[in-house]
Structure prediction request, 272 residues.
Amino acid sequence: MSTQLYTTLNNGHQMPLLGLGVYDMYNREAEQAVLWALETGYRLIDTAEMYKNEAEIGNAVRESGINRTELFVTTKVNNGDQGFDKTLKAFDESLKKLNIDYIDLYLIHWPIKATRKDTWLALEKLYTDGRVKAIGVANYLVPFLTELETYASIIPAVNQVEFSPYLYLKDLAEVCKQKKIQLQAYTPLVRGMRMNDPKLQGLAQKYNKTPAQIILRWALQHGVSSIPKSANLQRIKENFDVFDFEISQTDMNFIDTFNENLRVVEDPMDLF
Prediction:
């Protein structure tokens, strides 16, 4: 039986290391995917205003019957809703759509140059007012984190970025570790683009696991949280079945060499 692993965020709150991402899921598909994930054992669900499925995610959370305190729900402020007052309003709207008692983690979705400072200050207000359990950022590479330090009075709890063996942002991982920011990977499976890599296939055969499970286990052993996206029950279960084996240090080092700076999403540095 797979058992979820947790990380303690820099403010003391616990967050599951493995979760479900719900990007590009709509209506009943999104709701069903979350219900399947929660039945499988997932306790972290990651959505965003940009995904237009917050209501469905909230429905699934309530429908599951699982005690709210056992679940960890993340959402994010949309790019067009950034700015101090607009962010506060956007948070209220997300909470209303989700229709749950509270949000565990609220993130700046993208570091938009003109608004990211005021947006972060709004997140700090939401946190200090006790309206959200934790705040963080997404798509913040090292230069963005360095800039954030010039005006932030709260260190982000989480930094969610595109991260995989094929986009191994080692420097960012080390900076986040030093600053006690939990790194979280979206599109960790590279949208399936490297599942036929012979190197990865060889490791999958060695450990009697799938290529996706090797990638997710690699991230976990690096202490990186992952939120693979799937609306397929078999894949949802497969992605969660990663707690019963361990990759050797030699093979971890080998996977670290897979990096090819492969991005499937825009480069955040284009916004700097």
About this structure: The longest helix spans residues 84-98. The CA atoms of residues 60 and 248 lie 37 Å apart.
